[in-house]
Design brief:
The protein is mainly α. It is built from ten helices and no strands. Pfam families: DUF7530.
Length: about 240
């Protein structure tokens, strides 16, 4: 939804026209160029506005706290994605790394896998367990179609960012091990690794809303631990380089 305007140390040809899939959305709209802060504001206001409108229309106020938390996670995740991309584009990193990270769209695949797993849990696994299903506790026993649509859309936004954190941590570790860089670049990339860890920690905001659903808690906490271990290992390797 927002286009980054990187300042490169190397030429544009060397850096390559690589972007997160998220960043490329605005580029698909001719003549539209939004500053990051405005794109992020539009993202939050649009989703939160729809959330509140549906809550008002169908009296679903019990679901607003969880929905707002998911919107905050998605919007803040967008801001961190832009910050990570901007930092990487200012560094003299290998073109292969930038192509893998931004140009492969693997984060979409990983996000899709997590989304399919979540949808399977919500509509198949969870209803077969004892207790109130998660969607029913949020949207009621007969959820309105617009509410379900918006819920799934926001959840996709969150899952996409989970997939992005996975891919950013893996590629960061790969370049730390396989592609040595100068001391200054290593120092800056350690900051990127720390941002990626923060990016994953952001998802823990959702844990209180699924605390009665052990499998989802396990998935969220496990995701954070995995990213922290991989990106933490990248920081360790860069510190010894």
């Amino acid at each position: 939804m927002s286009r980054a305007n990187p300042t490169n140390r190397t030429s544009q040809d060397e850096q390559g026209p690589y972007q997160w899939t998220y960043e490329s959305i605005v580029d698909a709209v001719p003549g539209v160029t939004l500053p990051d802060w405005l794109a992020l504001t539009i993202q939050f206001v649009l989703f939160e506005g729809l959330l509140l409108a549906i809550a008002l229309r169908y009296d679903l106020w019990d679901g607003v706290p969880a929905g707002t938390a998911a919107v905050v996670v998605a919007t803040t995740g967008s801001a961190l994605m832009l910050a990570i991309a901007r930092r990487i584009r200012t560094l003299s990193t290998p073109a292969t790394y930038r192509k893998l990270l931004f140009g492969s769209s693997i984060e979409i695949v990983l996000g899709l896998l997590s989304y399919v797993g979540l949808v399977t849990y919500l509509f198949v696994y969870n209803p077969r367990q004892s207790g109130t299903p998660l969607l029913e506790s949020i949207l009621g026993t007969e959820p309105p179609i617009p509410a379900v649509f918006l819920t799934l859309l926001i959840l996709w936004d969150v899952c996409y960012r989970i997939g992005t954190a996975w891919w950013a941590s893996v590629t960061g570790f790969w370049v730390a091990v396989r592609r040595p860089t100068d001391r200054e670049t290593r120092s800056q990339l350690r900051k990127v690794d720390a941002l990626i860890i923060g990016f994953s920690l952001l998802q823990l905001v959702l844990v209180p809303f699924v605390r009665d659903h052990g499998l989802l808690v396990f998935a969220l906490v496990g995701h954070v631990i995995a990213v922290t271990c991989v990106s933490g290992s990248a920081i360790f390797v860069r510190s010894r380089g």
